[in-house]
Specification:
By secondary structure, the protein is α+β, with helices and mostly antiparallel strands. The chain has a single domain, classed as Alpha-Beta Plaits (2-Layer Sandwich). Helix content is 20%, strand content 25%. It is built from two helices and six strands, in the order E-H-E-E-H-E-E-E. The radius of gyration is 17 Å and the shape is globular.
Length: 97
Amino acid sequence: MSVYIGNLPHQVTREDLNRVFAEYGTVKQVKLPTDRETGQMRGFGFVDMETETEEAAAIDALDGAEWMGRDLKVSKAKPREQSGAGRNNRDGFSRRY
């Protein structure tokens, strides 16, 4: 049960998100992706909650809420799509030579 959080300030920490989401249930994991080049936080993250009920409560309470000077975008995380390396063009042939 993973929640997407967008429009995060770049100075946010895992501890900050853990504290906020713990108000709605058990936080299993917090992920804050960083830019490969700069190492800076990318402005979004994911929080894994224990149950779907806790996840729904957090989404309902936090989506659109102002936090650290920003309006949060909070929703159920979508499954990650397969990377481009595994996909073929529509004609069934790869464009790699």
